[in-house]
Amino acid sequence: MPPLARLLRSALILCVVAAAVPVVAQDGLRTSPAVSSQQSAVAIAADLSAGSGGSTKLTLTLSKPTEARVFVMERPDRAVIDLAEVNFQLGPETGRRREGLVSSFRYGLFAPGRSRIVVDLAQPATVGRIETTTRTRDGAILLTVEFQKADRDAFRRAAVSNDPSPPSRKEAVAEPTDSRPLIMIDAGHGGIDPGAIAASGVFEKDIVFGFAQALVGKLEASGRYRVRMTRDRDVFVPLSERVRIAREASADLFVSIHADSISSAPQVRGATIYTGSEKATDAESAKLAERENKADSTAGTDSSEGPGHIADILQELTLRETRTFSSGFAKGLMSYLSPVMELSNKPHREAGFVVLRSPDVPSVLVELGYLSSKRDLEMLQSEAWRADVTGGMAKAIDAFFANRTSLTRPVPPRRSAAIAPVSP
């Protein structure tokens, strides 16, 4: 490394250790310097190196020591490094370099107080040594995880012995009775799962989170609704957990916000509204649902089928009416969005998205546009466009609940106390 680069890196580490700069979360809330330095290590570099004997090392440069738990998972082959919460200050190209046994890696907040690095393996490998050392010249902490080449049987045995299940969410005390409808806004992806990535490096998780926040603000300003988010910061939330949060909060409407990307067809643009169905409307919708349903795998967790078999939870009538409500809202949403945004050539479709599997909460998934389309990306990053579209959505929600006053929805089984949105 050139002397100037070493000097700059050393200076940055000293600044981090001194805790001089506030940390700004994705939700815009500032954390005091003292709290940040006490709670989170800062990562300023992540380096890969291939060694002899078919080993590869991943070395993380940290401001202070942090414990690491490492395990491997199969289908696809990957290693998962669980850490206490880490503030990753790494360059955008950091995880894209291939070296030895590692084809790529990604990182981010996995749950409140926990961060995760998911390493995509180029071939089966098991975890070797995990070392923490202090670099003498600047006091930086080096966390090194070694991966060793393994045959398929050894890798499979190692994967079976792991227990990578995410921690349970904390339940909150039930809120006082409020008769206003509860709207659950679901910002897709988050934390270690970036979602689609534009050619410019913009992440889907950031685009949809900003949009979701704007929509929440619009709905709350009306005073007509209670509004919650399945995630209120840049954190990973499993797909089935998003469904559970909505159901146990007794949500009256679930709106999931996404922005797709098709690099092979940059000319494709426009918004599409999806409702749940076992059979997809078309092959394109089926492929999209398949990609979105792999979000848990991307973050290093096992997928769950959500609420389970419908017959075990509610009568078929409940499911049928819930889907009728979902479809009705989707059609109304189309009519309110068409004057303010470009819609795709088939704006209402059906597919088997995991987040749309709630049997008793009307649910839609809105693909706002395509990050692969230059025009759509410009719109998605425009505050004026966002204000128009969230305004159209708010009007569609108003119309949906105005029309539902004469409708009777089957009463679902008793639920437990409401679950708070994911937050520290």
Write up this protein.
By secondary structure, the protein is of the alpha/beta class. It has helices at residues 3-17, 33-39, 152-160, 204-222, 239-248, 283-292, 295-298, 316-337, 374-380, 383-403, and strands at 23-24, 30-31, 41-50, 55-62, 68-73, 78-84, 86-88, 102-111, 114-121, 125-134, 141-149, 182-187, 226-229, 253-260, 271-276, 343-351, 363-370. The strands form four sheets. A six-stranded mixed β-sheet has the order 13-12-14-17-15-16, with helices on both faces. Strand 3 (41-50) and strand 4 form a beta hairpin. Helix 4 (204-222) packs across helix 10 (383-403) and helix 8 packs across helix 10. Mean pLDDT is 81; it is low at 1-37, 166-175, 305-315 and 405-424.
In short:
This protein is of the alpha/beta class. The chain is built from 10 helices and 17 strands.
Radius of gyration: 23 Å
Strand sequence of the main sheet, in spatial order? 13-12-14-17-15-16
Dominant shape? elongated
Number of strands: 17
As residue ranges, the low-confidence spans are 1-37, 166-175, 305-315, 405-424
Largest sheet: 6 strands, mixed
Terminal CA distance reads 38 Å
Content-based structural category: alpha/beta
H/E series, N to C? HEEHEEEEEEEEEHEHEHEEHHHEEHH
Secondary-structure blueprint of this entry?
Elements: H1 3-17, E1 23-24, E2 30-31, H2 33-39, E3 41-50, E4 55-62, E5 68-73, E6 78-84, E7 86-88, E8 102-111, E9 114-121, E10 125-134, E11 141-149, H3 152-160, E12 182-187, H4 204-222, E13 226-229, H5 239-248, E14 253-260, E15 271-276, H6 283-292, H7 295-298, H8 316-337, E16 343-351, E17 363-370, H9 374-380, H10 383-403
Parallel strand pairs: 3-7, 12-13, 12-14, 14-17, 15-16
Antiparallel strand pairs: 1-2, 3-4, 4-11, 5-6, 6-9, 8-9, 10-11, 15-17
